[in-house]
Amino acid sequence: MTLAHQKARPIKPGGVYPAKELCSQCGLCDTAYVHYVKDACAFLNQQFDHLETQSHGRQRDLDNPDELYFGVHQTMVAARKTEPIAGAQWTGIVSSLAIAMLNQGLVEGVICVQNSPDDRFQPQPVIATTPEEILAARVNKPTLSPNLSVLEQVERSGMKRLLAIGVGCQIQALRAVQDKIGLEKLYVLGMPCVDNVHREGLQKFLETTSRSPSTVVHYEFMQDFNVHFRHEDGSEEKVPFFGLKTNQLKDVFAPSCLSCFDYTNALADLVVGYMGAPFGWQWIVVRNPTGAEMLALIQDQLETQPVESQGDRKAAVQQSIPAYEKGVTLPMWAAKLMGVVIEKIGPKGLEYGRFSIDSHFTRNYLHVKRKYPEKLAAHVPEFAKRIVAQYKLPD
Ligand code: FAD
Ligand code: SF4
Fold first, then answer.
1. Residue 12 gets which letter from DSSP?
2. Ranges of each domain in the chain
């Protein structure tokens, strides 16, 4: 049996995790490392300052506008694979990088997430030790995923060099325990993440939003202000953001994600997303020398261009705050029209990234303030407080 096929301990059915309803099911508490949860859990102990210093040698410079938003970094670039991987979420930069690291002997295994055999959206974390197992993990499982549930297998296998692929809450907990798992070198490849859902929440989102929920194989909230669905038969469906039934979707997002301020995965060595890149391109943030070493491995597989920034997001963000609060949903014709106009004149590139960060941070700040007022001061990091302070918020 390969490591990829050893199952992690299952999430305790109906069990209560230390972060209670804020738990994002990162998987740490399904291992013996649950012992460290009070210190390690992203929702019990916000510690970006300490973990940024541990991971990158310094904290983000809050007076540098790009670092305030996108975190510690050396460079940012827009890129796409010259030969995309079929079936990947975007062009497959994440999978290609993991394969290159394995093939060139930098790592012995890769934490990534495949799907269960009977449900394309049900995550199944694995430690992949072959390119085939990494490829089988390509494409997003747009649900909370217990990636860290396989951590004990890392220690048991005697592996010394590991690549972990994951989203912010998983990486925060991993960084907090990384020196307890017997590794000589850990590489972290992160993805931005926002508005994730439990499996049932995903079903509700698909049923409320898509014309054919049962045939969706892939979706993404894109920079053209539409949700793009791809169906089993290869057809594409676009639904404008402004036409989403926000009144019905408010309780769909996981409570953890409504309390999260790590959209851009602050603690990864290298981040691969799309939010700061032109439509069709991926956005890469190199945070430290380890991230630069990783990216260099696949440079010859990539076409790149500098990141750009256009437009001014602030009025749109300010207007979206009361609209979200009231659960405003436009008729579809108006939503489509609005989408077309905003795509022409709205924020692009890094400014689109800031638009998305501002919209989510203001919403999440209000959520924490109202629901967990006693947590607000310690849980919201300083960078998020500064971002939110640019807007006028309701009580
Ligand atoms: P691929 O080569 O297809 O590889 C995808 C990798 O994602 C695989 O290695 C797999 O292990 C991992 N993965 C899949 N599902 C999960 C999961 N649930 N948790 C952890 N790891 C997972 N980018 C943005 O710019 N803005 C966003 O708002 C945003 N939200 C995201 C939300 C989620 C839940 C996820 C998983 C990703 C999100 N991303 C976001 C990143 C983006 O969608 C792409 O995943 C990224 O650009 C990599 O694309 P790729 O083609 O290189 O990946
Ligand atoms: Fe445990 Fe992770 Fe849930 Fe926190 S988010 S309680 S560390 S499983």
1. P
2. 3-196+256-309
Return the H-helix or E-strand segment holding 142.
none
Residue 26 structure tokens = 């990162």
Tell me the fold of 3-196+256-309.
Answer: Aspartate Aminotransferase; domain 2 (3.40.640)
pLDDT-derived band of residue 304, with 50, 70 and 90 as boundaries? very high
Is the pLDDT reported for residue 11 higher than 90? no
- In short, whether 18's Cβ falls inside 6 Å of ligand 2 is yes
Question: Measured on CA atoms in the order 123, 129, 134, 136, is the torsion positive or negative?
Answer: negative
All residues at 6 or more sequence positions from 200 whose CB lies less than 8 Å from its CB, including other chains: none
Please tell me the residue having the least CA distance from ligand 2 atom 2: 26
- Locate 102 and state its tokens: 């394995």
Q: How many CB atoms sit inside 10 A of residue 132's CB?
A: 11
- How far is residue 137 from each of residues 48, 95, 158, 161, 199, measured CA to CA in Å? 28, 8, 23, 19, 18
Evaluate if residue 90 carries a pLDDT over 80.
yes
What pairs with residue 303 in β-bridges? 80
Show the ligand 1 pocket: residues with CB < 6 angstroms. 85, 88-95, 112-113, 123, 137-143, 145, 147, 165-167, 191-194, 196, 220, 272-275, 282
Cβ pair 167, 191 in contact under 8 A: yes
**β-pairing, 270-273 with 185-190?**
parallel
Residue 146 main-chain phi, psi, to 5 deg: -80, 60
Question: Which residue lies with its CA nearest to atom 41 of ligand 1?
Answer: 273
* Confidence at 335, pLDDT banded by 50, 70, 90: low
- Answering whether pTM is above 0.85, one says yes
Atom of ligand 2 nearest to the CA of 34: 1
What does the pLDDT look like over 125-161, one tens digit per residue? 999 999 999 999 999 999 999 999 999 999 999 999 9
State if residue 24 touches ligand 2 by the CB under 6 angstroms criterion: yes
